[in-house]
Write a structure and sequence with these properties.
The complex is a heterodimer of chains A (127) and B (207). By secondary structure, chain A is an all-alpha fold. Chain A is built from six helices and no strands. The chains are: A mainly alpha (127), B mainly alpha (207).
Chain lengths: 127, 207
Amino acid sequence: MNEQELAKKIVQHLDQGLGHIRQGTLYKLQSARMAALDRYRKAPEPVFGLAWAGDAAFRLSHSRHFNARNVFALGLLLLSLIGVSYWQLANQSSDFAEIDASLLTSELPINAYLDSGFEAWLKRSSQ
Amino acid sequence: MLRSHPSPTQTRLTTRQIPLATRKELSDFLAAVERRAYKQAMFAARDEQVALDAVQDAMMKLAEKYSTRPSAELPMLFQRILQNTIRDHFRRQKVRALWTPPMSSLGGGEDGDDHDPLETLQAHPDSNPQEAPSDQLQQAQTLELIEEALRKLPARQRQAFVLRYWEEMDVATAAAAMGCSEGSVKTHCSRATHALAVLLKDKGISL
């Protein structure tokens, strides 16, 4: 008898043995199967959209920090930041305008000629 | 009885085409495999409660973590999980044995050598009630000796034999389930069958 034949005969006996398992054990196996199937998770359906953005918006709107007082304070902070940035930009542009006007009217302050960068630029532009 | 499993390569290639396992498919698969899985665990652990726990753990893990995989992959995944669960049990047992006083072994275990297979034997639902009692007894004794021989095999040989011949996996799938090469599966199978033949011959059993 070769390997395959012997294995086949052994398996026949083993299959017969499956019918001799006690009812109590079979019941436990069935219960285990049912418990396992309760944990079955279906494959998630594909959803088109920004999953994280939606989730973030949901989380923010359902957060315990999400109330009118905090929203107002956050808005005020944002407005302040925007105001400061705008004021800095406006100030900077008026400084440039002042320097340009002084340069055109040849009324530069003496400190301008002491600045090495300005001197270098002057030499380059005059060449 | 015809159970066929695709090879892992074939499974990987067709993963996109094969529909994922439905709850019904998973249920059918578990129902078909649970008795053999229990026996397998019994061969390894030799304890009914441990075997039941191992099968339940394997079923839970399969349903929880791998239920969204194609149904063709379920046999290989289940076997792999089951073997890992049994191995984990032995690891825990080894650690526990280090901390358990050796005196506890004097209490006497439940696994006596004078276990009579007929005590737990029940009539097979498909068996012929007209079958001679002597034939039934002989079958029961043969089965007991075969199961005893399987229990005596080294774990890897027993696993290879069960996967190849009882679970009817092809060599590639069995290798994937065992986490070894196809050559190793063939070697383990051959040695297992040879050892079983010798063990059964020693007991005077001719199949």
